[in-house]
Amino acid sequence: SLQVNKLTIIEAYNVLEADGVVCARQGSGYFVNSVSVPSANLKSTFAPAQNVIIPKQGGSCFFDMYTAGVHAQSQPGIINFSLGFPHPPKDIDLIARRALKQAPDSLFQYDLPQGQLTLRRQIAQMLIQQGMEISADNLIITNGSEQGLSLALQHHIQPGDWVIVESPTYFGAITFGRASLNAILEKLKAKIIGIPMTAEGMNLELLEQYLKSHRPKLIYTISTLHNPTGITTTQAHRQELLSLAEKYECPILEDNAYEGLCFETVPPPIKAFDKQDLVTYVNTFSKTLMPGLRVGYMVVTGKHYQEILEQKLLHDFHTSTISQAIVSEYLASGHLRRHLKQMRAELLQSRNLMLQALECYFPEEARWTVPNGGLFLWVQLPENIPTKTIRIEALSQNVLVACGSAFFPDKKGYPAMRLSYCLTPEEIEKGISILGKLLKKYLYK
Ligand code: PMP
Fold first, then answer.
1. What is the pTM of this model?
2. In whole angstroms, how far apart are CA 165 and each of 195, 223, 435?
3. Which of 439, 413, 437, 423 is nearest to 61 (CA)?
4. Whose CB among 67, 73, 161, 301 lies 3.0–4.6 Å from 277's, allowing a Cys bridge?
5. What is the Å distance from ligand 1's center to 254 Cα?
6. How would you classify the pairing of strands 376-380 and 416-420?
7. Per-residue model confidence (pLDDT) at position 384
8. Which residue range or ranges hold the HTH gntR-type domain (predicted)?
9. Strand 279-284 vs strand 252-255: parallel, antiparallel, or unpaired?
10. Which atom of ligand 1 is the closest one to the Cα of 226?
11. Above 60 in pLDDT, residue 34?
12. What is the pLDDT of residue 27?
C-alpha cells in the first residue's frame, strides 16, 4: 500500500492555504475557499498612483535618494534601480488576516518596549540555530533595523568620538537626518573613519592602525551581502575583526539585513563568536518579508540592554503590535523557508540577467561585483565619469539610479552606482541599455 508521510500532507495543506485554495479554521480543520484570494504581487502592493511626479528634493543626501526611490516606485514607466523593493510573500494577506482574527485584546493595547514575547522567542530560536547564545530577553523588536542602528549609535557614541565604518557603506547609517549617525555627528560632533572595502571585506590591517591611533568607540559593519558592494565576509575575517575589537575594547555594531537572501550558506554572524558583549546585532524582516511592516530587531547582551530598551521606550514606546503579530504568524506558519527559497531563485535569475545586460551594454572600463545574493550590485566606473549628471540625464529617460557618492563617508570615493536587480527582465534590459549609452557618451566624448 502507498504510504504518505504526515509532514508531506501538512506541507500540502500549507501550500494550498498559501495559494488561497483552502483556509484553516481553528478546531474545525481546512475548508475550501469559495473565492480564490488574489496573490499579492509587487505591482498590486505598490499600486501605481496616477499623476505623481518625483517632487523636487532639498534634504540630506539620504533623504533625497530615499524619497525619490519611493516616489519612483509608484510611477508607471519608471525603471527604478535606486532602491531594493523585494517581492512580498504571496500569502501575506492571508497570514495577516489570520493574525488579526486570532488576535487577543492585548494586540490592540500598548505593548512592552522590547516587543511581543512570542515573536522574540521565535527570533531567538532562529538565532540560536545560527550559534548565538541568547534568549528572548536579549531581543528588542524595533521599527525596522534602521531604528536598531539609530538606537545602537546613540547608545555608543559620545561627543567627539571616532566611529569606524566600511567605505563604501549603507548610506542610511551615515547620511540620514534626525536619529542616525549623521545627526549624531552633527549634534554630538562624532567623527567617521571610512575603512576601504577589499574583496574580502573591511581592510583589517588598516582597521588595526586606526583602532590604535584613534581609539574609536564603535565599528559599524555589514557582514553579509554588504550594502552596497554585496561582499560576504568569511568566518575567518569575522573572527579576526572580533579579535581586533576585543584587543582594543571597541564595540561592534553588526548589521545583517540581507543575510536571509544569500544564495549560499553564510558563516555564523560575528555576534555568535562574541563572548564579551561587545557586539550589538541588528536585523530586519524588511528584506525577507516586506519593508512596509517595519519590523526589525536587535540583539543586545549584558549591561547595554536596559539602557537601549529605555531609549526604545522614549523613541516610540514599542513597535506596532499588529506588524509584530503578522510576522509572528508568518514564522509560525512555517512558510518562510519556502518563500525565501523562491525569492532567492528569482533574485538569482534577475542578478544573472543584469550581469548579462551589463556585459552587453556597459563600457568595458566599468567593473562590477557579482554578489552572492541580496538585491543590488555595485558598479565601479572610470575616474572621469560624472555620475550625478548621468543620474539626472537617466531620470529624464525614466531610469532612476543611486549614485555611488552617497555611500562614501567622506562623500568622495570613486565614481560608482548601486543598481537594484529587483526588477522585471524587460526593465533590466531596457534600463541597463539606457545607462550604458549614457556612460559611453561621457566616456568616449
Ligand atoms: N541596514 C541596511 C544595510 C540596509 O540596506 C537597510 C535598508 N535598505 C537597513 C539597514 C534598514 O532597513 P529597515 O529599517 O527597513 O529594516
1. 0.85
2. 6, 12, 30
3. 413
4. 301
5. 12
6. antiparallel
7. 86
8. 1-35
9. parallel
10. 3
11. no
12. 72
Residues 6+ apart with CB under 8 A from 400: 54, 68, 69, 72, 78, 79, 80, 81, 82, 391, 394
User: Shortest CA distance to 141 belongs to which of 310, 353, 374, 309?
Assistant: 309
Tens digits of per-residue pLDDT, 58-116? 556 667 777 777 877 777 789 999 888 888 888 888 899 999 888 788 888 899 999 99
Give me 442's grid cell. 561621457
* Apex 274 CA angle, 272 and 279, nearest 5: 100
In the prediction, which pLDDT does 61 show?
Answer: 64
Bridge partners, 437 (sequence order)? none
Q: Which residues line ligand 1 (CB under 6 A)?
A: 144-146, 170, 172, 222, 227, 255, 257, 284, 286, 291, 296
Cα(99)–Cα(338) distance, integer angstroms: 19
Question: What's the pLDDT score for residue 393?
Answer: 92
Query: What is residue 375's three-state secondary structure?
Result: coil
Which residue has its alpha carbon closest to ligand 1 atom 1?
A: 257
d(CA 156, CA 251): 8
Integer Cα distance of 135 and 329 in angstroms: 20
Q: In 42-154, which ranges are E strands?
A: 79-80, 139-143
Question: Can the peptide bond before residue 228 be classed as cis, meaning omega within 30 degrees of 0?
Answer: yes
User: How would you class 303 by CB atoms within 10 Å of its CB: exposed for 0-12, middle for 13-18, buried for 19 or more?
Assistant: exposed
d(CA 143, CA 323): 10
Distance 261 CA to ligand 1 centre (A): 13
Quote the percentage of the chain above a pLDDT of 90. Answer: 62
